[in-house]
Write a structure and sequence with these properties.
The protein has helices spanning 15-22, 28-36, 109-116, 149-160, 233-240, 288-300, and strands at 2-7, 40-42, 58-63, 80-83, 87-92, 140-146, 166-173, 180-184, 187-189, 197-199, 207-215, 219-226, 264-272, 279-283. With 301 residues, it is an alpha+beta fold.
Length: 301
């Protein structure tokens, strides 16, 4: 446990960047967590990360002890699509939770990653090292994992700037008259069901682009591109326009295609390699149950 005091001599940039420059031993992730938990004060006041530091400011920083990682490495098979010194790309199977939570304390992707490598970026919460974005338990497909704090900062900035190519395949209910479209609707917690997200007036901005790939009797295969990354975004947006994802137990109808949850797959993922600046893009086919369902729909016409 450490306390710091910074006396600002001249106007500078954002508060988070200023602290990172003055105290390089603190990662940007740690600074962000401390700002959120209000253990950083400027002139004895709570300020946002975007606060512009001014000459004469006094910044007091209380660094709490790191939370112990009460996580167990588990020998769970992983499909590693790519790995270098900074990033791991995995193809997450349906049914696997990304990180531990109250309802899922173990058998998660994080538990499997801890067995695979000792090099995972620090997590401000402690329970999700390396995780920079998530996909739902019963959504399959590509995820990028940060192996160090430099990689985490870079990947998080790319996600915030919306520069990552992220495409999903989905089998949805109903047919479309249009070939493509964009859903722009804010998403927040449902006022009627705390387990669900919904399109709500005071929600966070969310944008999903979609393209029709193939139409069947009562169902359609579409490709979705995420512009933002809200919780359950594709599932909520597609329900909102009247085309819920087939098999979705939370947002879809009870009469649907049989599977292991929603027929939604993160098929394409791209990023700029944090150290080299090289553009990377990865593709992976949907799981067998998804492909078999497509085969059956094609046979029915």
């Amino acid at each position: 446990m450490t306390d710091y005091r910074l006396d600002v001599e001249k106007d500078s940039n954002r508060l988070d960047k200023y602290i990172a420059q003055k105290l390089p031993d603190l990662s940007r992730t740690r600074i962000k967590a401390m700002l959120s938990s209000q253990t950083i004060r400027v002139n004895d006041k709570i300020e946002k990360a975007s606060y512009k530091v001014k000459s004469g400011d006094q910044i007091k920083i209380h660094v709490p002890p790191k939370k112990a990682l009460n996580l167990v490495a588990e020998n769970i098979p992983l499909e590693i699509v790519y790995e270098d010194q900074d990033v791991i790309v995995v193809n997450k199977p349906q049914g696997m939770v990304v990180h531990p939570s109250a309802g899922h304390p173990d058998h998660t992707l994080v538990n499997a990653l801890l067995f695979h490598t000792r090099h995972l970026a620090e997590s401000p919460e402690g329970f999700r090292p390396g995780i920079v974005h998530r996909i739902d338990k019963d959504t399959s497909g590509l995820l990028m994992i940060a192996k160090n704090d430099h990689a985490r900062d870079s990947l998080e900035k790319q996600l915030a700037a919306k520069t990552n190519p992220r495409f999903y395949l989905a089998i949805v209910h109903g047919n479309f008259t249009e070939k493509r479209g964009t859903i722009t609707a804010p998403i927040g917690r449902s006022p009627y069901n705390r387990k669900q997200m919904a399109v709500v007036p005071n929600g966070r901005s969310a944008v999903t682009h979609f393209e029709v790939l193939e139409q069947f009797s009562g169902y359609t295969l579409i490709r979705c591109q995420l512009e933002t990354g809200r919780t359950h975004q594709i599932r909520v947006h597609l329900k909102y326009i009247g085309h819920p994802v087939a098999g979705d137990p939370l947002y879809g109808p009870s009469k649907t295609l049989h599977g292991h949850g929603q027929f939604l797959h993160a098929a394409v993922l791209g990023f700029v390699q944090p150290s080299t600046g090289e553009k990377k893009i990865f593709h992976c086919d949907p799981p067998e149950i998804f492909q078999q369902q497509l085969k059956k729909l094609r046979e029915k016409g």
